[in-house]
Amino acid sequence: MTDFPPGMVWLVGAGPGDPELLTRKAARLIETADVVFHDALVGPGVLDLIGPDARIVHVGKRSGRHSKDQATIDALLVEAALEGNRVVRLKGGDPAIFGRATEEIEACRAAGIAVRICPGVTAASAAAAGLGASLTLRGLARKLVFVTAHAKAGEPLDIDWQSLSDPQATVAVYMGKAAAGDVSRQLIEAGLPTETPVALVENASLENERHFHTRLDLLPLAARTALGDGPALLLIGAAIGFAQLAQPLRASEEALPARPQEP
Ligand code: SAH
């Protein structure tokens, strides 16, 4: 295979969990790999594609349960490639979104190893799909922001709340479960209305996907009480409110309020 010679590393997007949301390219690379390093968020259906003779290394990192630090993962990738293996580094969602891809690319390049990215469906796309919502909405949500609310242990969140408090934006908060209280308080302080629609989507694209609709001021309560143990995304903004309105109305859209027209 010309794009995957021995000694090369591919950072492959595994998508949000549903194996059918893998790209065909991702599936081919996974099937071809001699060694696969994967995260905790990569589901069983995706791992099933790995060839019977391949070595599988779980390098899962989930909040509070770090099994291998980033430098160790970088070193393992380099070592496996230098041994002449075709290496797949399988990451949840898209490798280039909150996936520490740059560290791994730099480590490979520093060692003279060829490295490429295969994109994947990111969690925000899967969450919106599950809600039956659009992340953007003509005239109402012209901007889409992906932000992580994961802070280093013991440090406050370093986020420019002012820039996120745009009523014309949809904000997708990754790793936001623990910080839901802060997200809510800071966005309201920065000027977003308390009744701004929020959806929480847990296990997007998986069989145990769950959705909760709430509003910005009630987000902390919802995050504390409604969510289980799975990965969850917070979606905030007017466009998300349209999803909520649309939910019970799948058959008839008549009751949807008129949407502002583009000037
Ligand atoms: N690279 C990944 C994101 C990694 S950060 C991507 O593009 O999706 C990990 C965070 O992503 C989780 O804490 C959660 O907020 C979100 N996430 C990943 N998979 C998810 C899923 N199936 N459902 C909901 N959120 C998910």
Describe this structure in words.
The protein folds into two domains: 9-118, 3-Layer(aba) Sandwich (Cobalt-precorrin-4 Transmethylase, domain 1), CATH 3.40.1010; 123-255, Methyltransferase, Cobalt-precorrin-4 Transmethylase, Domain 2. Helix content is 29%, strand content 19%. The chain has nine helices and ten strands. It has helices spanning 24-32, 44-47, 70-82, 101-110, 123-131, 161-164, 180-189, 219-226, 238-246; strands at residues 9-13, 35-38, 55-58, 87-91, 115-118, 143-148, 169-174, 197-202, 210-215, 232-236. It has a five-stranded parallel beta sheet with strand order 3-2-4-1-5, with helices on both faces. Helix 3 crosses helix 4 and helix 7 (180-189) packs antiparallel against helix 8 (219-226). The radius of gyration is 20 Å and the shape is elongated. The protein starts with 8 loop residues before the first strand and ends in a 17-residue tail after the last helix. The model is unreliable at 248-256 (pLDDT under 50). S-adenosyl-L-homocysteine is lined by residues 16-17, 41, 91-94, 97-99, 122-123, 126-127, 174-175, 201, 203-206, 231-233.
